[in-house]
Amino acid sequence: MALETHLATLEDWTYRFLPPQKASRRLLLLLHGWTGDENSMWVFARNFPRNAWMLAPRAPFPAPSGGYSWREHVETSHSLDDLRASAAELLHFIEGWGIANQVDTDQFDVAGFSQGAAMAGMLSLLYPQRVRKLAMLAGFLPHGAEALFPASFDPQKRVFVAHGTQDLMISVERARQAVSLFEQAGAQVEYCEADVAHKVSAECLRALVDYLQD
Fold first, then answer.
1. pLDDT of residue 72
2. Residue 19: pLDDT over 90
3. pTM value?
4. CB half-sphere exposure, 172, CA atoms < 13 A
């Protein structure tokens, strides 16, 4: 059954949101991948717990082939600097949205797919005190992100990573590298690997739903 989300704008941002079933000031941020938009992430969210506001913004840059991107179009691989400015602008939007809707954004959870997972990871590394739970789905960390890892995270830092071994767009090795970096820094990491392509398997999606329960 499709979720009855709401389309809205704030300043230069277009987004969809879904209120929780019971009063809550918590937030789950949903970040789409390359060529996606504010509609893309709700296919994952259909079974998510309704214990927080869900917010899915449209990325700020048009992608050449249609849809939107979290960085301006360049031919090179994603680097730390490609996403840093977008991460800062995204956080500013989240804070403004939280004030407008009386939702606590001092801490929030974030789930991203593909390029959106890279942005989710950037938020977690640039603003570690702000991200409570991180979920990276069929994604990667941009080149240079290892420089942002602290000597140790808060022991409560939780990370979920899901990837397909048959993913030809983003190698499963990128996910394994991200898992290793987070584990070395002391995060609590849950990793789900499945024999699928550039998608999230049913098994990993169930694990993600469980991860987001509390």
1. 85
2. yes
3. 0.96
4. 15
Asked whether residue 165 is assigned to any structural domain, the reply reads: yes
Give every CB contact of residue 169 below 8 A, 6+ residues apart in sequence: 114, 138, 197, 198
At 69-87, the pLDDT tens digits run: 999 876 656 777 888 999 9
CB hemisphere CA count around 37 (13 angstroms): 9
In-domain check, residue 153: yes
Torsion, Cα of 92, 148, 120, 61 (10° steps): 60
What CATH code is carried by the domain that includes residue 88? 3.40.50.1820
Domain that holds residue 58: 6-211
Beta-strand pair 131-137/108-113: parallel
104: Cα separation from own chain's centroid: 18
pLDDT at 199: 97
| Dihedral Cα 107, 110, 115, 121, nearest 10 deg | 50
